[in-house]
Every structure is written in C-alpha cells, then in structure tokens.
Design brief:
five-stranded parallel β-sheet; two-stranded antiparallel sheet
Length: about 350
Amino acid sequence: MRISDAKILLTTILKYNIDQFMAGASHKMFIIPCFLGDPGVGKTAIPNQVAAENEVPLHQTIIAQYDAGEMGGFGIPTDVIFQEEDGSEYTEKRVIRARPDYLPDPRTPEGVVGVWNLDELPQAFLANQNICSQVVNEYRLGEHPISHGITICCTGNKPENKAGTTTMPMHLRDRLMFINIEADYHDFLEYANKMGIHPWVRAFIGKNPAYLHKFEVGANAFPSPRSWERTSELLKMGHAPHILTECLYGQIGSGMTSMFMAYMKVADRLPGVEDVIRNPESVPVFDSNDADILYMLIANLVEVSDKKNLGQVLKYLKRLPNKEFVAMWAKDVQTRHPEVNDTKEMTEFKLSVLTKILI
C-alpha cells in the first residue's frame, strides 16, 4: 500500500474511533493497523502526518527500546489499609504497579483523543509484545486504562528485512490488521516538493522512479525515501565533489551514487517516464552510443509499466534501434509486473517483436 493510501486508511479509522468514543461505544470493534515495510520507506510518517493533519495529539512509543519492567510499570511497595467488620483497621504491604509515563493518560487533555503509535513493535522483545497484546485488546495496561478516544497503530520492519525482528505471538497477530507499505515515487515527489528537497534529487527520482527504494539486506547504505532526503541535505551543504561522493557512498550506497552522478551528466537528455507514456511516438530514442541513458530509461519503464499504460510503453519500445534493451525490458517487466503477461498487447508484442529478436 502507498503511504498516501495508508494515511487515508488511518484517518478513516481515527474518525471512526472518535465517533464510537463520543457515542460511548466499546473499543472491542476498533481496528488496529500494523504498518510493515522496509527500513527508510516512511512508515512512521503515517501516524505523524495523520495526527498533524487532523490536529490531534500524537503519542509515539518505541516499544523495542523498553525492557519488560519499564513497559509493564514498575511495582511500588505500598501500605494498604483494610477495615474489619468490627471497625478495626489493619495495614498490609502490597505491590502496586506504577502507571508508565509513556501510557496516554485519560486524565489529561492530550490523553483523551489522539493517535498512539507503537513503533518498532516487531523488533521488540517477546515480553514487550505480550504486554502490547493487552493494550491493543483491552485498552488498558494492568489496572491503568487508556481513553477509547485514542487510536492505536503499530509500525515496524518485516521479518525478511533481517532488522532484529522477533517472531510475534499469534494472540497478538490476531488482534492486528497487517498492512505492507511500499515506497511510491508519486508520494515521495509530492512530499519532496512540499519540504523543499534539493531539485537534483527531485529530478532524479522523477525521471528514475525505479531508484527511489532499493533495500539490500546487510548493506550499510541503500537508497530509500529517508536516505534521499538526507542526500538532499548533503547536496545543500556545498561539499567539494570528492567529499560529496564519499558522503553519498555512505548514504545511498556506491552503486546508486555512481548512477546519481552519471545522471547529472545526462540529465538534460534523459526523458521522463511520464513523457514517454504521454508521447511515445515523439520522445527521442537512443542507440548503443547512449547506453548509460538506455539503462536508466529501461529500468524506469519497467518500474512504471502496468496494464493501463502498457500500450503506450510498447509503442516507444518498438522505436528503439537496439532490440537488446527491448528484450531486457520484456524480461524484467514480466518479473516485476507479471499481471501484464496475459494482456492482448503483450501477447502481440511477443509475437511481432520479441520473436524476431530471439531469431
């Protein structure tokens, strides 16, 4: 799911929960979304932006940074006075669980209505996840309640990201609605324009959407919406080229840095994918002498090709003089977007163009 769609989803849930709260309804039917995605994709931006746009308080708790004692509330020895039937009193020492400071307090204005994000939930210890299962199911932690006007959501990385995830117990999974979040270049460019991200970054992603997010397990650096935003800040610092290159190696990876630098040299000649789709018969084509442009362009066309624009993309590909790049697109798009394989346009393309290439 795109971040923009996830924001719509969470906003709808927030308004539903507030309506239920105002009507005095139970929390039992509340939906608790858990947004999962690669590191740097922008998951935590979802509750942050939804809270800001709806002008409600945001509570954010990084579950993985607490130990079980902090998470559950430390026990405090307390004298409790009891009264017998005959009116006499006696004192008994008991341990009362303290209310954790991170828990939204319904006795305060900001604790009545708002958004509460349980961040890094999949990375948390099993004991912490078990504690969260009571929170999301019962809207309380031990004897300490939270307001039914609070909308809870969760964010974290996927198990395949190798980001220290803990196998989530089934009783907690059953109480959550899991939503996979993917990077979308339309969302990124809208955000980038709003935040004033460096024009080189905006132009590169606009013409090269395939390079917005390339997560690599075990890599120190890789391109992601977050790392591109930091790249923007590095560009604004005005470093000398050799310093900037080393910085980008450590921010988006050496391979992507090379592509980004290469783009700077051909930026004025590389057509955007939107231009190709709008005007496939008039956008310039390139031969083997411009292989650097073709590699980037083909990767971008693979990323955006779908059933709606397939006919337009194919019109452009048929014009390319170097059919090896056409075959490259065909191979990659069938892996990236298998739904286009059975379309009439793709079948005719295979018969009329790919067959000739193979022969």
